[in-house]
Structure formats: C-alpha cells, structure tokens
Amino acid sequence: MGKGIPLNDQDRIPWLCNLHDILLRDVASGQRVVLACSALKKTYRDILTQGKDGVALKCEESGKEAKQAEMQLLVVHLSGSFEVISGRLLKREGHFMPPELLHSQFETLEPPAAPENFIQISVDKNVSEIIATIMETLKMK
C-alpha cells in the first residue's frame, strides 16, 4: 500500500491468518482483545474468528488439533462518505496509505450485515462519542 498498490486477497489472507492465530492464543489465555484493522470483506472477518474454517486456507494455529477457544468478534464499522474520509486522509502526514488508494478501499468494502455481530458508527461523530458508543455496546455484551 505504501507503494500505491492496493492489497489483494493473496496479500491479505496470510496476514489475517496470523492475526487469527494471535487472537486465538490471547483469547485462550483469558485476555480480552481489541484489534484495529481493515477487514473490509466478510471473508476477512470470518478468517479472524474462524481461521481455516473462514476460507479454504490453512492458518497455522487453526490447523492444530488443540481445543480452540471460542472467539466472538464485535465488528465496529466506522462508516462515512468518500468525501469525508478522503478529506481526512488528505490531512494525514506520514501515513503508509496514500490517498489514491481510497477508491480501492471503497470498492473492496463489504459492510457488515446480519448475522454478523456488529455496530455501525458514523465518522461524523466526534472521537469521544464514538468511544462512548463502543464502550456502551461492550457493556451490554
């Protein structure tokens, strides 16, 4: 992405499998985990929770016969118009993702939908409101 080339599934899936393996390890040890990443497609979110069962691919830890911890994923989908997000992206300095890739991100995006466990929050809210909404949702779970 830093070179201005959008990532494809071949780039993303091994990375998501690694994240799944880390999540699985941490959840199995009793930790609560917050992961911030752009899991733009439902398949990507499935990989995070199910590993190899999320796609026809073997993730390292998922392939082991050890008892897996049940992982519940709450997707926090921050939604906003292309114009708003583009405007914010243009103000960033030193970020790895160039603004030219935003179109590919919107094209790839599959917003969460039922039966996925998610909340959608507008990026038009201020950061304090976004955090409060997330925290309130987590208290109800």
From TrEMBL:
Keywords, in A-Z order: ATP-binding, Kinase, Nucleotide-binding, Transferase
Which reactions are catalysed by this chain?
Answer: D-gluconate + ATP = 6-phospho-D-gluconate + ADP + H(+)
The name of this protein is gluconokinase
Q: Name one GO biological process term.
A: carbohydrate metabolic process
Q: Which gene encodes it?
A: IDNK
Q: Which InterPro entries match?
A: P-loop_NTPase, Therm_gnt_kin
Q: What class of enzyme is it?
A: transferase
User: Family per UniProt?
Assistant: Belongs to the gluconokinase GntK/GntV family.
Q: Which GO terms describe its molecular function?
A: ATP binding; gluconokinase activity
The record's section on Gene3D superfamilies has:
P-loop containing nucleotide triphosphate hydrolases
Pathway(s) this gene product operates in, as recorded in its UniProt entry? Carbohydrate acid metabolism; D-gluconate degradation
Any one Gene Ontology cellular component term annotated for this protein: cytoplasm
- EC nos: 2.7.1.12
